[in-house]
Amino acid sequence: MNVLNHPKKVLHVVSAMNRGGVETLIMNIYRNVDKNKIQFDFITHREEVCHYDKEIESLGGTIFRIPSLGKVGPIRYLREITNILKENDYVALHAHTDYQCGFPVLAANLTGIKKRISHSHSNNWGFGNSYKAKIKLSMLRALIRYNSNEFCACSVESGQFLFGNQKRNIRIFKNGIDIKNFQIIPDCYQSVRALS
Fold first, then answer.
1. Section 53-58 average pLDDT
2. Which residue from 54, 182, 183, 187 lies 20 to 30 Å from 115 (Cα-Cα)?
């Protein structure tokens, strides 16, 4: 089988592919990978077209729009993701949905996906510190830890927040930017400086 005809496919799970920090990070990587070797597809939770959708499709990616976990509940949400995984040939699933990462990686685990990556992009929990909220977060963390076999975080703190303090291999993956977008153009720079 020729690798050039069959790139390895990775399914990314995000809320929406608008111009946020997580989404821009993914797109910076996606633009620069060899599409003959690796292809990205996306699950999003928005019906409307988002900022990066057209570019994703132009790069060969597919966008699957499914209702969010909060709208349909865990059973239907898992079924939606499981169906996508069964109908496509993915080598990895990479979840970027913070404390909800456990549901996509559970679906990947159930369908035999070998690489199941949970990625923590935050170090906070927006549901307070009540006893009920702490139990809910504890259960969501356990779901993530049990079903993921790769862990990424944008900082040590975000990794500890979502994956706990246990010794596990957490890859710190800083939110890099493409500095070419911020290079100084000499003529433009001088004309702007003259205005101030």
1. 97
2. 54
Distance of CA 152 to the CA centre of its chain: 10
Which two three-digit tokens encode residue 24? 């821009």
Mutual angle of helices 131-147 and 102-110, in 10-degree steps: 30
Q: How would DSSP label each residue in 19-37?
A: SSHHHHHHHHHHHHS-TTT
Report the C-alpha dihedral over residues 174, 61, 140, 108, rounded to 10 degrees.
-120
DSSP annotation of 182 reads G
pTM: 0.86
What are the strands of the beta sheet with 170-172, ordered from one edge? 63-65, 38-44, 8-13, 90-95, 115-120, 150-153, 170-172
What helix, strand, coil percent values describe the chain, rounded to 5? Answer: 45, 20, 35
% of the chain beyond a pLDDT of 90: 65
CB contact set of 173 (below 8 Å; sequence gap of 6+): 119, 152, 153, 154
Q: What is the CA radius of gyration of the chain?
A: 19
For residue range 136-187, list pLDDT tens digits in order.
999 999 999 999 999 999 999 999 889 887 656 889 887 766 666 666 666 6
